[in-house]
Amino acid sequence: MKRLAASLAIAAVALAPLTVVAAHRFSDVPDSNIFHDDISWLADADVTRGCNPPDNTRYCPEDQVTREQMAAFMHRLAENRVVDAGRLEGRTVADLTAELGGSPVALAYQSADSVPFLDGEFTAFTVTSVTVQAPPDEPAAALAEAVGNVLGTAGETVDENRDFACWIATQPDDLSSDSGALVQYRPGQPTLNQVFATSHALEIPAGSEVTFYLRCRDISAGSGDGFRVSGARLSALVIPGGLLLSRSD
Q1: Fewer CB atoms < 10 Å away: N or C end of the chain?
Q2: For residues 78-103, b (16+ Cβ closer than 10 Å) or e, as one string?
Q3: 10 Å Cβ neighbour count for 39?
Q4: What per-residue confidence (pLDDT) applies to 88?
Q5: How many percent of the chain have pLDDT more than 70?
Q6: Is 32 exposed, middle or buried, given 0-12, 13-18 or 19+ CB atoms closer than 10 A?
Q7: What is the CATH number of the domain that holds 217?
Q8: 160 pLDDT tier (thresholds 50, 70, 90)
Q9: Domain encompassing residue 230
């Protein structure tokens, strides 16, 4: 059980973002706003600072985001290390793997930006992929996680239901989107950025490798014209011994 807990902790270090405690600060983002906690998280992380400087008491939640503002958000996100996979409760990946008495974990990732949805109903495509390998002398657990955004043309709204799915597969032509994340737009809704997150885990034999594919498709009637996947990141973690999927006392 202790070995399993340590393995799960390693996965958290390598793949999960740090938690930032939310705090209400904008007068135009009441507690009843469905995105209240998300907006407060951005503010607490100093990614957003408000829309009415120097007071910055408002967020202007329905305003469009310019490319200049996007650059500021991304710069602060990286500079403030809001996503920091280096430590968990003061311990590094090396510290945690030492508790297992095993080999260090392996981590790989790939990213992709501005990949358009293919025209044609239900047409699936691969956004990016990453390959990892088990140690030569023992099986391993492989855990993949993907995050990204779906968005359409700025300033436009949809006039019919639009549904998009993104999932992680181990085959390049996989169509099993039911296991992934769903992004939905409804008539009259702006085609603004919507975030998705999905994961997939399995055991791989000693010495073998597995390729994870981030796949997406438009699962609504019509075509994917005008919509794209942006800022996608696919990470894969390998833990020797297959400890994510089996218990050891």
Answers
A1: C
A2: eeeebeebeebeebebebbbeebebe
A3: 19
A4: 47
A5: 71
A6: exposed
A7: 2.60.120.760
A8: confident
A9: 103-240
